[in-house]
Amino acid sequence: MLAQMTQKQKNLLLRVVASAVMMVVLALLPLKDYPLLRFGLFLIPYLTAGHDILRKAFKGIMNRQVFDENFLMAVATIGAMILGEYTESVAVMVFYQVGELFQSYAVGRSRRNISALMDIRPDYANIEEDGQILQVDPDEVETGTVILIQPGEKVPIDAVVTEGTSTVDTAALTGESLPRTVREGDELLSGSINGAGLLKARTTREFDESTASKILELVENASSRKARSEQFITRFARVYTPAVCAAALALALLGPLGTMLIGGQPSTAALWGDWIYRALTFLVISCPCAIVVSVPLSFFGGLGGASSRGILIKGSNFMETLSRVDTVVLDKTGTITKGNFEVTGIHHSRIGETRLLELAALAEMHSGHPIAGSLRRAREAAGAYDADPSRVRNVKEISGKGVVAEVLDAAGGADTSDAAPIWHTVAVGNSRLMEELGIEAVPCHSTGTIVHVAVDGAYEGHIVIADEIKPGVKDALRDLQAAGVSRIVMLTGDLRQTAEAVAAEVGIRELRAELLPGDKVTEVERLLGEQKKGRTLAFVGDGINDAPVLSRADLGIAMGALGSDAAIEAADVVLMDDDPRGIARAVQIARRCIRIVYENIVFAIGVKLVCLLLGALGIANMWLAIFADVGVMVLCVLNAVRTLRA
Fold first, then answer.
1. Is the domain of 349 the same as that of 459?
2. Are 111 and 120 within 8 A, CB to CB?
3. What mean pLDDT comes out for the span 611-634?
4. Is the domain of 437 the same as that of 511?
5. Is 451 inside a domain boundary?
6. Which positions ≥6 away from 472 have C-beta within 8 Å?
7. pTM, to two decimals
């Protein structure tokens, strides 16, 4: 523990130990017959321990921000010194500083968790110029620049490997301990660390838009989004502190006056001293440090602990929302399945499988949808593929249905002098697209996504594309149910037959299929209307096409979406790896964090109310007051530190 302390914390520890030793020694010395000497000697450990508290209290008074814990400690301890309770006065300062030391150390541990993530920020990028390697600021590197990443260096900017093979450590980004092998054509995320091989890579973004920058911005802004519990504590402290000061003043003045009127006792210094001592004890007990410190610390620790597991929660308000999740809605593609579509069959083709595949791939040439990518890969694998962009024109994309484009027939090329170019109208999409175009599609009974193809208004066959279910999905759903999620729903644009097959395999009972992008928003709104009061709905998607739904749900969770701008912008929680078990892990972390927050609130307020009553009745002395204040704060801080262990 000592090795992890900052120099400031070590200095505070030294002051606390020195003050405590002096206090014990002075308490044992026979100094009662020398009141001035005793006062002067006790003043040394008092100021050693609490000079900074007195200074902060004075600054607060000067800045018209009087009522805080420093003011309460200053008034209570100065009052105790005036009454001659020197040992108690020094003890209050010493134990209060012990609590501050625990708080500072706990916050430091939380910050180190966040700092480990902050270390992903690269200091430089290597570029080759005139045969020499130059180190430049990552901000100065333009998109498309070839950079060199040497063994052991951080990847400075998102890039694609152009030369070399190596392993990269993505632990700081995803929490995944196993390194990932990369080679030519693979994507590199900024903030990951290169292993033993030299890599050349072409940047795909500017530094400000890279993964590392977006994550750092997200984490830095997280603490500014406060949960309702934190906002309540802030408002509570503003009202509570002046109220207890007024109550202590009333106790000091009205207590002896009431005793004289009701009990018939004369006004004596002992009577007034007894009630003033009760009032000072009341002030020490009333200090709200335990609540004011432990609640934000619990959230801060929870955010830090989650980030160490590859879960970025954008603020403690979202942590609170996540803890109340009762319904989880999952998008199928990219969440339950890998999204790595592969062509598994071509049926009812009248123009030949290769030609059908080529026309479909050309029509989808400019689409970024995973299905389009699978068509292009399948055509390339089948043989020679002329992917000339000039062979495609008048592309019309119909949302949720498919694409219609004019494709140049390779047999009648545009450059052929003795034949006019032949353009075909090619429609590629689902059965709804065929219906819209008035073309009768042949149904398919295979499991997977069915892509129908029509050429010049005539149906020419369909292509079966299958997706692979992610490993760990069944475990993730079981963990979600164990965490208290009572309803799990799958949404997809696929045919019901395909959706039911996937749902049955992973164990989802409730699904909605054949949905357009807009239908997903409508469906989520319907599910929101069915939610129980006080419970929330989370939508989980890959963040590429799900931004509207991520924004509409009570809580948006984007998974495996580090490279997706839409995910980081629209989602409230970002899972930095592609493991669906992270969904349940995020819910468990949030619920544990909120449970610890409520434990601290109930414990701190409960103990203080009991001790305040005992103090007002004169049963509790200054030593019990020290426990009620510092002891409770230390216990709450230690409890809050548990949130770091995600």
1. yes
2. no
3. 76
4. no
5. yes
6. 579, 580, 581
7. 0.64
Using the 3D structure, point to which of 186, 220, 254 is the last residue of a domain: 220
One domain, residues 325 and 277: no
Structure tokens, 603: 């414990």
Q: How many CB atoms lie within 10 A of CB 638?
A: 12
The CATH number for 384's domain is 3.40.1110.10
Domain contains 29: yes
Q: CB neighbours of 90 closer than 8 A, spacing ≥ 6?
A: 19, 22, 23, 42, 45, 46, 49, 77
Alpha-carbon distance of 26 to 481, in angstroms, equals 61
Strand extents, DSSP E, 482-571: 487-491, 510-512, 536-541, 555-559
Q: Cα dist. 622→9, 21, 83, 298 in Å?
A: 26, 19, 12, 29
- pLDDT (0 to 100) of residue 646: 56
Is 639 within the bounds of a domain? yes
Out of 547, 576, 605, a domain closes at: 576
pLDDT at 148: 93
Q: Which residues are annotated as catalytic?
A: 331
Q: Which residue, among 364, 333, 339, 347, has the nearest Cα to 433 in the 3D structure?
A: 364
Model pLDDT for residues 170-192, shown as the tens digit of each residue? 766 655 556 788 889 888 888 88
Both 248 and 319 in one domain: the answer is no
Which residue has 């541990």 as its token pair?
109
Range of the domain at 429: 342-466
Beta strands in 61-192 (DSSP E): 125-129, 132-136, 146-149, 159-163, 166-169, 180-182, 187-188
- pLDDT tens, residue by residue, 97-153: 887 787 676 666 555 555 555 456 677 889 988 778 888 888 888 899 999 998 888
Q: For residue 110, tell me if it sits in a domain.
A: yes
Shared domain check, 88 and 34:
yes
Looking at the structure, tell me whether residues 149 and 238 fall in a common domain: no
* CB distance 260 to 606 below 8 Å: no
Which tokens in the block code for residue 501? 């097959």
Beta bridge partners of 202: 146, 160
Residues 165 and 204 in one domain: yes
Q: Report the C-alpha gap between 15 and 490 in whole angstroms.
A: 60
Say whether both 425 and 376 belong to one domain.
yes
Residue 589 near residue 646 (C-beta atoms within 8 A): yes
Q: How many CB atoms lie within 10 A of CB 269?
A: 7
Q: In three state form, how does the secondary structure of 383-412 look?
A: CCCCCCHHHEEEEEEECCCEEEEEEECHHH
pLDDT classification of 267: cutoffs 50, 70, 90:
confident
Is-contact 77 629, C-beta < 8 A? no
Number of domains in the chain: 4
